[in-house]
Specification:
It contains 4 helices and 14 strands. By secondary structure, it is α+β, with helices and mostly antiparallel strands. The radius of gyration is 17 Å and the shape is globular. It has one domain: Jelly Rolls (Sandwich). The strands form 2 sheets. Strands 1, 3, 4, 6, 11, 13 and 14 form a 7-stranded mixed beta sheet that branches.
Length: about 270
Amino acid sequence: MRGATKNRLIRALPVVAATLLLVACATHAPQFEERGAALPESPGRDVGLHQQAEWRTAVDELLKTPPGGDAWQPFLLPGKRFAAFELAKQPAGAALSVIADGSVSILRKRFDKALPDVDRIAFSWKVDGLPGDARLGEAGKDDAPVRILLSFDGDRSKWTGRNHRMSEMSRLLTGEELPYATLMYVWANHDAPETVIVNARTDRIRKVVVESGAKQVGHWRDYQRNIRADFVRAFGEEPGPLRAVAIMTDTDNTQSSLRAWYGRMTLTAR
């Protein structure tokens, strides 16, 4: 790769990273996920715990999906701090906890054979604060204390040239193309519940606000969503097969500190 081209890609990394959250190429794991001990770690957070048998068993029991697919794995973005998802006991039962501090934490499961008929998802979460001055529709302020992400296949011939270029940059930087479409469920600082927010950098990521503001901070919140209905409302078309699901807490843009908990999640297919 020529020096000028490489430099352009490096400068574009923050843009690409924002759209990389759920890339789901079944045959290629991210290069920074394969390095084992070389994975970057945030102070006090042990990435290696995600490989422990006890942790894996507990997560599989907590985050239930249809059969098949890879194990739940951390997805690390180059240049971003990562805080690990730790097992935690809560009055309502088992949970995963993450302490964010200007970091991006993603835990992802990919399906080797895409799920053609995903139906509903039930999930719960709790936070002890919101990222300061975060705005989900603005580039550079797009932080959320908790997210559920769903990545879908689809007809890429419908993409704009911009989205094709971003997907190619993603492939060059990480070995993975962008997913056709990513639907997120988010807790927003300001936007009203049921608002659909289009990502500022690509229209292939759209967010459905399910919680907003600080009123419910410190309380467990439970949700049940019709995935197909939400996808159609967000994208104006039927969803394709599901390739990946993830949970995500990010405070890197606002450099905020907070703690988030993820309770039981159940993803079902028809």
